[in-house]
């Protein structure tokens, strides 16, 4: 086979371990997954009720235009319906963006460590990649500007960033956007937008008129609690969306996912409640880290990146044995740390107890 050469140096995406697998291999009665930043409160009860009662003509293709959901989201964000692109998760939108703009002559800039799919997809397209190291968990936007060349096609901004959780101060983002040439697409991946509680944060969709070269990514996988349905979307100028739409597969969101996402939008109270509960629990992690004298990045998301006193893989293994699945920083480009999804109050109590146990074993 004439595989793309780059594939020889690549590996398939390795997801976190599943509850079933861990339960079986460790012989545990109860396992809590705090590894993929899903919503520990599930989804809005109206969505669950809808799922139990809804019936659909499963033999019919989905609405490839996502008409109803498109209308609802356009209204929610105050944008035109032609400004939205739907993806099978925002993962698919990242793939579409790379297919549309990158080839072996193009250049792209991204933070590191950050969400793996930017570099994964850029590599497949053969683009030259400049990875700009974070500084204390934050994007080094000046270094991004210095890295721009005539061939730069995409700049990726993960805000708040995964895996550190840090949010770029709004004025810094604006200063940066003012300096980026308008022929470069700036992707603002905001998968964790709904969890941000910083009062100075501004909805970047409101920046679209001022900066028509930005594309904002959002998802139903996190705060909306619908990760299994695979539905994410991009909001941008109609000119950008039109080009990206040429690459999108015809029926990339299934009928149930479209219906469920639309239903979820009717219960913004659920999102507010989750944001509030998550904030309270995030503060708990902050106090724990301060009390124990361990480093924790300043998160505005539903996960925290915590320092560990031993190798991150070993710490992850220790917590697995206690029934908690978390992500080792070794796999995320943050050795010496583990990433923990903020769970419910009860889940966090158990996790912090196990973590404390780990610290005590190490004499901390
Ligand atoms: C920063 C970021 N972007 C995008 C995604 C992909 O989300 P999804 O494809 O579920 O919409 C994730 C998932 O973890 C993420 O952390």
From TrEMBL:
GO BP, sorted A to Z: L-histidine biosynthetic process
InterPro entries: Aminotrans_II_pyridoxalP_BS, Aminotransferase_I/II_large, HisP_aminotrans, HistidinolP_aminotransfase, PyrdxlP-dep_Trfase, PyrdxlP-dep_Trfase_major, PyrdxlP-dep_Trfase_small
Residues modified as N6-(pyridoxal phosphate)lysine: 222
Entry's EC annotation: 2.6.1.9
Pfam families xref list: Aminotran_1_2
Top-level taxon of the source organism: Bacteria
Catalytic reaction equation(s): L-histidinol phosphate + 2-oxoglutarate = 3-(imidazol-4-yl)-2-oxopropyl phosphate + L-glutamate
PROSITE patterns: AA_TRANSFER_CLASS_2
UniProt KW Transmembrane helix keyword: no
Domain Aminotransferase class I/classII large: 30-354
Entry's transmembrane regions: none
Keyword Transferase attached: yes
Pathway entry: Amino-acid biosynthesis; L-histidine biosynthesis; L-histidine from 5-phospho-alpha-D-ribose 1-diphosphate: step 7/9
Subunit structure: Homodimer.
Family under the similarity heading: Belongs to the class-II pyridoxal-phosphate-dependent aminotransferase family. Histidinol-phosphate aminotransferase subfamily.
Protein name: Histidinol-phosphate aminotransferase
Natural source organism: Sporosarcina luteola
């Amino acid at each position: 086979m004439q595989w793309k050469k780059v594939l020889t140096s690549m590996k398939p995406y390795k997801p976190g371990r599943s509850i079933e697998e861990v339960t079986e291999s460790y012989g545990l009665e109860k396992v809590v997954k705090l590894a993929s930043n899903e919503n520990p409160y599930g989804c809005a009860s109206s969505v669950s009720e809808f799922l139990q009662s809804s019936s659909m003509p499963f033999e019919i293709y989905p609405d490839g235009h996502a008409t109803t959901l498109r209308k609802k989201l356009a209204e929610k964000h105050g944008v035109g319906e032609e400004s939205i692109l739907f993806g099978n998760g925002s993962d698919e939108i990242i793939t579409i963006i790379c297919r549309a703009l990158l080839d072996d002559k193009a250049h792209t800039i991204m933070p590191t460590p950050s969400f793996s799919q930017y570099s994964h997809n850029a590599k497949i397209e053969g683009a030259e990649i400049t990875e700009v190291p974070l500084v204390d968990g934050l994007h080094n936007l000046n270094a991004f500007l210095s890295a721009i060349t005539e061939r730069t096609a995409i700049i990726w901004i993960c805000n708040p960033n995964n895996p550190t959780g840090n949010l770029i101060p709004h004025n810094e983002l604006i200063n940066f956007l003012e300096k980026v040439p308008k022929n470069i697409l700036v992707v603002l991946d905001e998968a964790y937008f709904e969890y941000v509680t910083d009062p100075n944060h501004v909805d970047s969709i409101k920046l679209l008129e001022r900066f028509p070269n930005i594309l904002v990514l959002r998802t139903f996988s996190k705060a909306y609690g619908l990760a299994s349905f695979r539905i994410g979307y991009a909001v941008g100028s109609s000119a950008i969306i039109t080009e990206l739409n040429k690459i999108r597969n015809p029926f990339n969101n299934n009928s149930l996912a479209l219906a469920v996402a639309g239903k979820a939008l009717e219960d913004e109270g659920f999102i507010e409640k989750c944001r509030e509960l998550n904030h309270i629990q995030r503060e708990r992690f902050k106090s724990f880290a301060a009390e124990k004298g361990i480093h924790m990045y300043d998160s505005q998301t539903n996960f925290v990146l915590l320092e560990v006193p031993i190798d991150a893989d070993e710490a992850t293994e220790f917590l697995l044995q206690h029934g908690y699945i978390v992500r080792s920083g070794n796999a995320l480009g943050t050795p010496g740390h583990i990433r923990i999804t903020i769970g419910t109050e009860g889940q966090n109590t158990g996790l912090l107890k196990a973590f404390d146990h780990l610290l005590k074993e190490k004499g901390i």
